[in-house]
Amino acid sequence: MFRYSLVFLAGLWTAGAASASWADSLFGELSKDFGSVPHGVTLVHEFRLTNNTPQPLHIADVRVSCGCTTASALEKEVAPGHATAILAQMDTRRFTGVRAVTIFVDFDQPSWDEVRLTVQANSRDDVLLTPETLAFGRVRAGKTSSASVTVSFVGNNQAQILAAGCNSNYVKTSFKELNHGENEVRYQVSAQVAPDTPSGDWYSEVWLTTNQPSTPRLRVPLTVVVEAPLTVTPASLDWGQVMKGESSERRIIVRGSQPFRIKQVKGTDEVLSVRESSQGARQVHVLLVSLKPVSPGEVNRSLQVVTDLSGEGSIDFQVRAQVTP
User: Fold this and answer.
1) Which of 88, 95, 218, 298 is most exposed, with the fewest beta carbons within 10 Å of its own?
2) Of 275, 218, 283, 279, which is closest to residue 252 (Cα–Cα)?
3) Domains of the chain by range and CATH?
4) What pTM did the predictor assign?
5) What is the end-to-end Cα distance of the chain in Å, rounded?
């Protein structure tokens, strides 16, 4: 599943380039500044790229300039019009103060090129976060969930959190002071995700406004996996080139958040047929998709799996093939 960044991600900054290459234009952004963050948190960001060329892309390598950061491509092969992302993870336990890291993304198809992405953060060792992120874990679509962290200001009993929030209706935030000691001030920061949060793996942040001139804003990472009622893997079956009259079969897996029955699959005919490997209500169904082309040309079809689940009880998947005589 492709991961996303919610619209409430904040603090983005874009680096200009003297002359952008064709590969630079694939990315929506080339840099990410996490700002001031508590020491010890792991910062996550996805640099999304879309293949806007008429040819397939291949990411040959992803490298970083510092061991405090890891980076990888979610998918290395990207068809025209499709998208993927470079996932960057910055471990602030490995440094204090300001650190900027370069991520090198090498392409070898359709031609060689290199893109340089940048992540930056200011790791504050006088601010501690326990646990290191607002981690909601897995939340079923349509349900709400809450998570909280403790923010400690060490060696400064004058520090205050003045406000907490994020730019989204999907997350509500709150905070309260837990302890005001001689050498430490502790706050509890809480967040709640709304039941209408879209399905997917989300990375975001809660921003804290403080009374400290050196750190007027602090970033608290937030992660949540909202499980869709139905998912299909893979979402697209690509046969490539097949000969007319040549039968072949592929499998897809349909998963549900609860046991379900498949009522029908829409869009089938004498060229495309679908059957279940087993009947009955279950959370995971394996479907066998058969292709038997009867004439040369392109097959580009969307099939819909209809279940007995209420609400979002159906899901689509794509079938593509190029039929030769």
Assistant:
1) 298
2) 275
3) 4-227 (2.60.40.10), 230-324 (2.60.40.10)
4) 0.65
5) 35
Cβ neighbors of 213 (< 8 A, separation 6 or more) are none
- Label each residue of 83-138 as H, E or C: EEEEEEEEEHHHCCEEEEEEEEEEEEECCCEEEEEEEEEEEEEEEEEECCCEEEEE
Task: Report the SS3 class of residue 82.
Answer: coil
C-alpha angle with apex 172: 91 to 211, nearest 5 degrees? 65
pLDDT at residue 24 is higher than 90: yes
Q: What are phi and psi of 238, to 5 degrees?
A: -115, 110
Determine how many CB atoms are found less than 10 A away from the CB of residue 53. 17
What's the whole-number mean pLDDT along residues 274-283? Answer: 87
Structure tokens at 41: 């948190």
Q: What is the DSSP string of 2-68?
A: --EE-TT---B-----SS--TTGGGBS-SEEEEEEEEETPEEEEEEEEE--SSS-EEEEEEEESSTT
Question: Any idea which residue has 């234009």 for tokens?
Answer: 25
What pLDDT, in 10s, does the model give residues 37-67? 998 889 999 999 999 999 999 999 999 999 9
| pLDDT score of 217 more than 60 | yes
Under a CB-based contact definition with an 8 Å cutoff, are residues 34 and 101 in contact?
no
